[in-house]
Amino acid sequence: MFRTNPSELKRQLKKLGLKNVEVKNIEAEEVIIRTTDGREIVAVSPQVVIMEVPGASAMIQVVATELRERQPTIEEESEFSDDDVRLVAEQTGVSMEEAREALKEAGGDIAAAIILIEERKRAHEAS
């Protein structure tokens, strides 16, 4: 499979005028992409390279030996108490469903869920 040499990639990016780019290889077993329609695309045995420019967005390159499509497993809706979901929703001004999703992403950590929603709001406002 194609292998990326971080030093060589940084040198090529510098030639293109992109300086101070941080290039990292990530050892991963799989990369999962969750689509908006509820499917999951799984990159099996991937090579993952992350390129970051300070003050800018990151770019992730994934090269995989195989792609698989699957339906995500159904999680229990009662994973978090209604009080926790309501608290996150009230503090951030989002719907109960958005608050529940943020709690899932934050592993049940209420403060982290609130921060996650606020960061998304700021990112959306900036774009």
Give the tags:
127 residues; alpha+beta; Ubiquitin Ligase Nedd4, Chain: W; Helicase, Ruva Protein, domain 3; 2 domains; three-stranded antiparallel β-sheet; 6 strands; 38% helix
Descriptive account of the structure:
The chain is an alpha+beta fold. It folds into 2 domains: 6-70, Single Sheet (Ubiquitin Ligase Nedd4, Chain: W), CATH 2.20.70; 77-122, Helicase, Ruva Protein, domain 3. It is built from 4 helices and 6 strands. A hairpin with a 5-residue loop joins strand 4 and strand 5 (58-63). Helix 2 crosses helix 3 and helix 3 crosses helix 4. The longest helix is centred in the C-terminal third of the chain and has 17 residues, at 110-126. The mean pLDDT is 85.
| Contiguous helical run count | 4
Ends apart, CA distance between termini: 37 Å
Q: Which CATH-level-2 architecture of the largest domain?
A: Single Sheet
Oligomer: single chain
State the shape: flat
**How many strands, which pairing sense, and closed or not: the largest β-sheet?**
3 strands, antiparallel
Helix and strand run: HEEEEEEHHH
Total E-strand runs = 6
Q: What's the CATH topology name of the largest domain?
A: Ubiquitin Ligase Nedd4, Chain: W
Q: Give the number of domains.
A: 2
Give the strand order of the largest sheet, numbering strands 1, 2, ... along the chain: 1-4-5
